[in-house]
């Protein structure tokens, strides 16, 4: 009887050993670099991966699996070479790169060219580190990387328009007609991390935000501006009038101002930077959330004299009511 039990135990151990062997072999044979690397780049990746996987359990998981470079950015503004690495453990299970086990993709930055040491490089680097640390602390480390939706979720003072032209791994963000879209390059590698913002993209994002909030602001002031401004709301009705050339007494109901059913553009107070767009209901009512500040609301298709705008003030945590009338020019 004991011999039978011992035999079953040996068979079980043998099966488990075979399963473990297969699990180890799969990543070793199937995980390969998507680009060719120099010896120096390979050393950089090896050192970067070991530095990020600093937990003993992570080291064991990495030993059972394999890492590979899935993308190489060669035209970065801040750094010349950015190697995007994905690591796997047994059975090619994606391996996280923090001891909290909540991120699948890591970014290993290798730069052998002389780094820019001017103010732009320093400020963009400080800006990038600050917003990424803020995201990790308050939301968690992103699975694929830092993208526009993640930043918009983390920072109430950011607007979709801030990401216009921001470069990513496989394309760029485009803000047009009140909507933010990701445009993938027609040629090149496709992956789930295609919308992750690269170094050059963070510089574009930084410049966009600074241009909106003020070119003389420091990095700390910009960070404060997008984190502490808070969100308020503007609501009310938008009408078009006068409808008749002569005001009658008593007023003719047919000559009452008409509600506008259409699309409106939210700009800065100067009217030269677009933030967002919203639509009214058929009764002219609207409600739109905005970061605290002063804005100008214009009609996408004005039917009155010239381009008209109405100033509104947004207060964090409050709703400001406005009755806005656009002039038809009828007298």
Automatic annotation (TrEMBL):
<protein>
    <recommendedName>
        <fullName>Carboxypeptidase regulatory-like domain-containing protein</fullName>
    </recommendedName>
</protein>
């Amino acid at each position: 009887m004991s011999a039978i039990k011992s035999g079953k135990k040996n068979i079980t151990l043998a099966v488990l050993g075979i399963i473990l062997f297969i699990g180890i072999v799969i990543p070793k044979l199937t995980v390969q670099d998507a680009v060719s690397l120099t010896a120096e780049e390979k050393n950089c990746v090896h050192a970067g991966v070991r530095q990020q996987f600093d937990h003993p359990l992570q080291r064991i998981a990495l030993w059972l699996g394999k890492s590979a470079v899935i993308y190489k950015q060669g035209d970065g503004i801040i750094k010349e070479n950015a190697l995007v690495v994905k690591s796997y453990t047994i059975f090619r299970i994606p391996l996280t790169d923090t001891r909290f086990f909540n991120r699948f993709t890591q970014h290993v930055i290798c730069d052998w060219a002389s780094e820019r040491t001017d103010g732009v490089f320093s400020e963009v680097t400080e800006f990038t580190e600050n917003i990424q640390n803020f995201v990790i602390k308050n939301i968690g480390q992103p699975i694929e990387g830092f993208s526009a939706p993640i930043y918009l979720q983390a920072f109430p003072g950011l607007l979709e328009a801030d990401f216009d032209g921001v470069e990513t791994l496989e394309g760029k963000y485009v803000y047009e007609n009140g909507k933010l879209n990701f445009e993938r390059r027609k040629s090149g590698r496709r992956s789930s991390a295609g919308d992750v913002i690269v170094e050059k993209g963070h510089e574009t994002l930084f410049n966009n935000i600074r241009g909106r909030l003020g070119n003389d602001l420091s990095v700390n002031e910009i960070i404060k501006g997008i984190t502490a401004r808070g969100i308020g709301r503007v609501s009310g009705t938008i009408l078009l009038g006068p409808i008749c050339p002569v005001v009658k007494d008593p007023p003719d109901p047919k000559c009452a101002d008409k509600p506008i059913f259409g699309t409106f553009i939210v700009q800065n107070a100067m009217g030269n930077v677009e933030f967002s767009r919203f639509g009214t209901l058929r009764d002219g009512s609207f409600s739109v959330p905005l970061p605290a500040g002063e804005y100008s609301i214009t009609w996408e298709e004005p039917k009155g004299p010239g381009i008209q705008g109405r100033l509104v003030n947004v207060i964090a945590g409050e709703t400001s009511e406005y009755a806005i009338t656009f002039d038809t020019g009828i007298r």
